[in-house]
Amino acid sequence: MYSISLFVLLFHWMMVISALPVDRIRKGKYFDRVVIIVFENQGYMIASNDKYLSSLTSQYEGFSLTNYLAITHPSQPNYVALISGSTNGTVDDKEANIDRNTIVDLLEPKGISWKVYQEDYLGKCLSLMSIVLTIVRIGSCDKQMKMGLYVRKHNPFISFKNIQTNKSRCEKIVNSNELDKDIKDDNVPQFVFYTPNMKNDAHDTNMTFGSNWLKNFFKSRIHQKAFNKNTLFVITFDEDDGSTTDNKVFTILFGPDFHPSTNKKYDDKQYDHYSLLATIEDNWNLGDLGQQDMYAKKIEI
C-alpha cells in the first residue's frame, strides 16, 4: 500500500513538473531569446531600400548594422560560420560533415534551450539511414540534400557530426510548422534559428517576394508574448549578390520587447557573422568556440 501511494505521489509530482511554463529561462545580459532569420543573396542596397525591411527598426526598438559583412561566397560556408565561428573548410555548397563544435555545445551546458526551424524540412536528421529511408519514401534526395524547396546548405546544424549522430539534437531540427505549436504552448526555445525555403528567402525569387513573406510571417506571430518576450530578432543575409567586393549584407536587430542601451537607429561599425555569434556568446556568458568568435568585435547593444 505504501509503495503504491509513493508511486502515485511521484507520478503526480512528475506531471506537475512537466506542466510548468517555460519561464524558467536563463536570463541574458541584453536579451533572453534570440530569433535569427537568414535571407539569401540580395545586395545591401536592394535590401536596405525595401520598404518593409527598413521599417522594422522604426516600428520596434532596434537598429540597423550598416557595415555588416558576410564571410565569403557561396552560401554554405557563411551558414557554417554563423554557428561555429569558422567556415571549417567548407568552400562550396556540397555535402559537408564537420567534426567541430557549434553554438549548441555552448548553449546546452548552460541549460539554454535551442531549436532549428526549417521550412519544408522532412523532420528527420539526414544521417545515412534516414537518407536511405527518405529515398525509399519519396526519391527526392540528391548530393546537395535538396528536397522540394528545402536545401541542406541552408541548414548548417545538420552538417556537424556531433549533431548528426545525436538523436536528441537531431530532434531539435524540425519543420517550421512546429513554431506555431511552440508559440501556442509557450514553449519557444531561447535560441531560434529559422530558415525560410528557397522562395521565401529571396534566393529563387526576389527581395519583394521575401519581404512580403516576412511581413506575413510576423503578422500573426511577432506580437505574441510567447515569441517576443525580451526577444532579439535578427534579420540578416548569408551573402550579398556578388555585385560588390566587400560582401556587405543588410542586417537589423529589433523587437517589440527588445531594449538596447541606446536609442541609435544605425551602427556603422564593421561587424560580420562572427560578431553575431560572439554577441550571443557574450549575452549568456557562454565562453567561445576557440575560432574566429574569439576575436570578433561584439555588436554594441
Automatic annotation (TrEMBL):
Coiled coil: none
Presence of keyword Nucleotide-binding: no
Signal peptide span: 1-19
Listed GO MF terms: hydrolase activity, acting on ester bonds
Matches recorded under Pfam families: Phosphoesterase
Any one of the GO BP annotations: phospholipid catabolic process
Domain of life assignment: Eukaryota
Keywords tagged on the record: Hydrolase, Signal
Name this polypeptide is given: Acid phosphatase
